[in-house]
């Protein structure tokens, strides 16, 4: 395994050198993705760590979640009800590092700033093409939705996103590959809870008008294909006609801040209530879930309803309120 190299700036390399670097890292990454692709459910964190180690990664940092190999770094991210690994392939500097006095005029300075992004976008195109994966399905998770320069693909039930990421003008522009469980979920759900022979037809415009909000695409797919109701005698999804308008969130803190609204969407056989958390108003596909069981603290999940059903019915996810050693 090659030692970790200092992340290089795309604007400081020739196009040929950058292309060779992107190709080499994409090849290494493809071998890692191939180890995840056969996994039909999100594995435990120690399993992910072992996969990264077996693929040639060296642990870095004390958390046990960081790895490095061949000029790339990887970080295991905590996702309740899912699994996610973020890979950083290259850095391209940031505009704050450029000294305006080093340029002849405004145009030259602007061109240098633009070139950083152009180099990063060229990296996205090169790496995604080299990986050669099929496009992500419409219901696949989109963890990097807020970054415009991205290519979405999938490997089995894993969403693979290649993107340009920058958290602020004073932070570096990065070429990132995100590997998250949550692709081709309809196929996995059909394995653990086969759909009925015929679905239902819903007037979604009327439903959204009555609720005052548009609903997530995965719920609309579930209602159309499964007709809602109880799945595997464990989770009952409310049909559109039984949904109620969102509830106001509780006021918290000394200044009584209002928290995100919630919208109940399902119940479990053991009495828990599953609600959407409308923390992304106007973007229903980004809503997470809140599990509320009587006598227990709420549990928030950063996954959508379809993924919740998949990992719950498959046994890959176990709610915190359930006692150890019992069946959910």
Give structural attributes.
328 residues, alpha+beta, 6-stranded antiparallel β-sheet, disordered N terminus
Architecture overview:
The protein is α+β, with helices and mostly antiparallel strands and 328 residues long. It has two domains: 174 residues, no CATH class; 128 residues, no CATH class. 29% of the residues lie in helices and 22% in strands. The strands form three sheets. A seven-stranded antiparallel β-sheet has the order 1-2-3-4-7-6-5. A six-stranded antiparallel β-sheet has the order 8-9-12-13-14-15, with helices on one face. Strands 10-11 form a two-stranded antiparallel sheet. The longest helix is centred in the middle third of the chain and has 26 residues. The protein is globular, with a radius of gyration of 22 Å. It starts with 14 loop residues before the first helix and ends in a 14-residue tail after the last helix. The relative contact order is 0.12. The N terminus is likely disordered.
